[in-house]
Amino acid sequence: MNWGSWIEVDLDALAHNFREIQAQTGASVCPVVKGDAYGHGAPMVVRHLAKYGAQCFAVGDVEEALTVRAHSQAPLLLLTPPLPEQVPEVIKYRLIPTVVSAELAETLAGAAAARRLRLPVHLKVDTGLGRLGVLPKDALPLAKLIAGFPSLKLAGLYTHFADGTNRARTERQLKELLQIRDLLSREGITNVIWHAANSPGFCLGPHTHLDMVRIGTLLYGQGYSGSRMELKDTWKLYARVIAVKEIPAGSLIGYGGTYRAPENMVIGVIPVGYSHGLQLEPESTVGVQFRRALRRLARPSQDCAFLGEQPLPIVGKVGMNLTCLDLRGAANPRPGLVVRLHARRATISRGIAKAYITRGRVIAYWRDGRFFLPAFDRGTRSYV
Predict the structure, then answer these.
(1) Which of 3, 214, 222, 347 is the most buried if burial means most Cβ atoms within 10 Å?
(2) More reliable by pLDDT, 187 or 379
(3) Residue limits of CATH 2.40.37.10 in the chain
(4) CA–CA separation, 260 vs 248, rounded Å?
(5) Is 34 part of the annotated catalytic residue set?
(6) Where do the CATH 3.20.20.10 domains begin and end in the chain?
(7) Is the pLDDT confidence value at 211 over 50?
(8) Per-residue pLDDT reduced to its tens digit, 216-259
(9) Predicted pLDDT of residue 6
(10) What is the pLDDT of residues 264-292, one digit of tens each?
(11) Which string of b and e fits 132-144 if b means at least 16 CB within 10 Å?
(12) DSSP-assigned beta bridge partners for residue 238
């Protein structure tokens, strides 16, 4: 592997977190793999967790679903409703669409009937987030409409918690959903999967879990207060230092000259920038500098790379594809040093290569939309 930057995904940690979540609930666990599985690579996450019993996965939209479908036949729930022109792909690739209107239900029913299929769908109800979903008063009429189409199956009904850390607000949303469940039951609409809990809602207790839980951030090692699970980090971003130079005191570094060297110092350059998803501050204003100072106080690691445990501060503005580091903390600064970066996983470019690790060794790489094997181990065929 000779890339300038890459993401390391720990599949053992991913499986551990999935089992930890399973142990906390009697509900079915639906891993959420939207946003390319929060930057982990949805195709591999789906294939790996299917080995541990995951039976359904939630994706963001049709485009994401098709990327996963090229590598897995697992059931895929679309969290956003398809556009009318995407309905043929929903049918062809056996996706499970979210329905939020009578018009979409009718379109799906017609397309499924033309293929002589019975298409499972999930109805979404807006109980307080204010985005997708029918209002509670419209849930029963739409559920009855869906149930009346021979070509559709009302397989699930769900809502999305607006603030899972706010117990009172979440309880109100859950109560509204359960009232809808009672209404449907009295109308004879049963055998429906009910789900509401996302990761923060999951941590409020088993009463939020219902039949299925949709878990994203917990799965990828990001915990919440109240969680009793021992989660492991699943994702690390690495880069190699490609150049090292000594600069004299007073030198300016980066666009706009926002950083002045306080003394003679050694800097290193890494081939990662804002085009890869690292944050760029657009203006060096007093407000930006104040926010940056507050961020460093609250989360100092966000403006550093790490050589082992040694922090190496980012100096100057992040460029499009290059970033400068203060290497005064490095014992032997030289090109080729590997540093670890902290970044928001979902914002990191999908073009960065991924290395998938299990039992301490790389079992597959992902780049440019395909898997391939480590050069030293062509015999491994489990994931490719």
Answers:
(1) 214
(2) 187
(3) 242-336
(4) 10
(5) yes
(6) 11-223
(7) yes
(8) 999 999 888 667 899 999 999 999 999 999 999 999 999 999 99
(9) 95
(10) 999 999 999 999 988 754 444 444 455 55
(11) ebbebeebbebbe
(12) 6, 340
Task: Name the token pair of 198.
Answer: 């996302």
The confidence band for 364, taking pLDDT boundaries of 50, 70 and 90, is: very high
Q: Which of 52, 220, 255, 365 is catalytic?
A: 255
What class has domain 11-223?
Answer: alpha beta
Run of H or E including 356 = strand 353-358
Sequence-distant (6+) residues with CB within 8 A of 60 are: 34, 35, 78, 79, 80
Q: Which 3 state secondary structure label does DSSP give 338?
A: strand
Lowest model confidence (mean pLDDT) among 92-101, 173-182, 359-368: 359-368
Mean pLDDT over 165-194 rounds to: 96
Distance (Å, whole) CA 173 – CA 160 = 8
Closest CA to 199 of 225, 173, 175: 225
Task: Tell me the C-alpha distance between 71 and 92, whole Å.
Answer: 15
The phi, psi pair for 115, rounded to 5°, reads -100, 5
Q: What does each C-alpha distance from 109 to 17, 101, 196, 236 come to in angstroms?
A: 38, 12, 25, 44
> What would the DSSP string read from start to end of 252-271?
EESGGG-EE-SSSEEEEEES
Domain 242-336 falls under CATH 2.40.37.10? yes
Look at the block and give the residue holding tokens 């898997």: 371
Check pLDDT > 60 for residue 302: no
Q: What percent of the chain has pLDDT over 90?
A: 82
**Per the structure block, which two tokens stand in for 82?**
């398809």
Assign 293 a pLDDT band (cuts: 50, 70, 90). low
The strand pairing partners of 358, in sequence order, are 361
Q: Say which of 34, 124, 153, 317 is annotated catalytic.
A: 34
| Annotated catalytic residue 236 | no
pLDDT of residue 252: 96
The DSSP bridge pattern shows strands 152-158 and 119-124 to be parallel
3-state class (DSSP) for residue 184: helix
